[in-house]
Design a protein that fits this description.
Elements: H1 6-10, H2 14-24, H3 36-40, H4 51-60, H5 63-67, H6 71-74, H7 80-84, H8 91-104, H9 113-128, H10 133-144, H11 151-159, H12 173-186
The structure holds iron/sulfur cluster (2 copies).
């Protein structure tokens, strides 16, 4: 866990704070730093900033620190923080908004693998309407340039038919693609 330095607090970008508030509609101005979200978060121990700190940093407009943090990628979207926040701040929507902003602004953060997985997973949903594990894994391997690390496990899964060679057949793929296009237009 890191602390927010006084120097960093003076360098805030109010436009960033406003944008996150408008896109997320998470009510983050209601946060009074009670720490309930961070004390409830199952992965807070692994984050560089706790969820309550991320909320405070967004309020202060600390764009660079927030978008490059590991926290936004380690958030497991479990919604525990949302259920327990006494002020109904939707921390998860803030995390979602920050992830999309980090991707769109091509921020090179401290976490490198999870953003690639995130994009690969969403790409598979957009393409097939459902995840197709085999093509997703191959793409992930190429993008992370980690081709051979668990090839034996992959072969075993293929032989046991745990990985389907053919992509799934899903009705309404065009509608799913249209949703992706619409959210792209309306997102960060
Ligand atoms: S639980 Fe809610 S009010 Fe408390 S620190 Fe977290 S976001 Fe802020
Ligand atoms: S949604 Fe994310 S930030 Fe909130 S408790 Fe779950 S893992 Fe932690």
């Amino acid at each position: 866990m890191q602390f927010i330095s006084e120097q960093a607090q003076e360098m805030g970008d109010p436009a960033f704070s406003k944008r996150v508030r408008e896109i997320s509609e998470a009510g983050l101005e209601r946060c009074y730093q009670c720490l309930t979200c961070s004390l409830s978060c199952p992965v807070a121990f692994a984050m560089d900033y706790f969820p309550n700190q991320i909320i405070r940093m967004v309020q202060l407009g600390l764009k660079e620190q927030v978008l490059s943090s590991t926290t936004i990628w380690l958030c497991a979207t479990c919604e525990t923080c949302v259920a327990r926040c006494p002020n109904e701040v939707d921390v998860l929507r803030v995390m979602d908004t920050l992830r999309e902003m980090a991707l769109q602004e091509k921020v090179k953060g401290k976490e490198t693998i999870i953003p690639i997985f995130h994009q690969t997973f969403l790409g598979s949903i957009k393409m097939w309407g459902k995840q197709h594990e085999l093509s997703m894994l191959l793409l992930l391997k190429m993008r992370t340039r980690d081709i051979f690390s668990d090839i034996g496990l992959g072969m075993k899964m293929l032989l046991k038919r745990k990985l389907s060679l053919l992509p799934p057949k899903v009705k309404g793929v065009e509608e799913i693609k249209a949703i992706f296009e619409r959210t792209k237009e309306g997102s960060a």
